[in-house]
Backbone:
């Protein structure tokens, strides 16, 4: 539902487990969006807390920058942020980061901490893409290569490396699309 004032009710869920989720947003202009999300209700004993109350902002400048940040005022408060910068035209370089920081203001015995932080870099053009990105506080790295051989054939490979455990995994795959309605895919993974 979108009110004439510009405020949208994006989601309202009454879940079968007795929880309620609501999300609303406001498009300030074509590039800037403010949003709020909240979930609360019955909490099962021994299960992770699902409740949250988030305030967020998104900024999108097509082809140049995408940035997002939110604050969960219920848990922590916890601050999340990410941004991807795009440089170039059809053949471009993308660089990005993501971080999650818990201020621990709701826990007197805890110190503030980064829950997660990661970076990524990619080179993209019409016929191929190559990227490297991190996961889990930069303890896992993922290297990817995607080649569009022609409009019907795509080939890709991905190498996963866990820095802290010195373990690797390799996945190779391909896709063939003989027409708009048919797709055949195959992959081999060492994991």
Residues:
């Amino acid at each position: 539902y979108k009110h004439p004032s510009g405020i949208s009710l994006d989601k309202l869920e009454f879940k079968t487990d007795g929880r309620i989720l609501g999300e609303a947003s406001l498009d300030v202009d074509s590039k800037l969006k403010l949003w709020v999300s909240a979930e609360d209700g019955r909490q099962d004993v021994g299960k992770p807390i699902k409740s949250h109350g988030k305030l967020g902002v998104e900024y999108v400048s097509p082809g140049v920058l995408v940035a997002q940040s939110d604050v969960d005022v219920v848990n922590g408060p916890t601050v999340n942020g990410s941004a991807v910068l795009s440089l170039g035209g059809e053949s471009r370089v993308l660089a990005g980061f993501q971080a999650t920081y818990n201020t621990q203001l709701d826990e007197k015995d805890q110190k503030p901490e980064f829950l997660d932080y990661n970076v990524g870099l990619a080179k993209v053009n019409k016929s191929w893409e190559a990227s490297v990105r991190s996961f889990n506080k930069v303890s896992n790295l993922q290297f990817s290569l995607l080649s569009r051989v022609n409009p019907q054939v795509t080939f890709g490979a991905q190498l996963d490396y866990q820095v802290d455990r010195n373990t690797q995994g390799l996945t190779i795959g391909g896709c063939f699309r003989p027409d708009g309605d048919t797709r055949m895919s195959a992959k081999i993974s060492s994991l």
Summary: The chain has a mean pLDDT of 92. The radius of gyration is 21 Å. The longest strand covers residues 167-179.
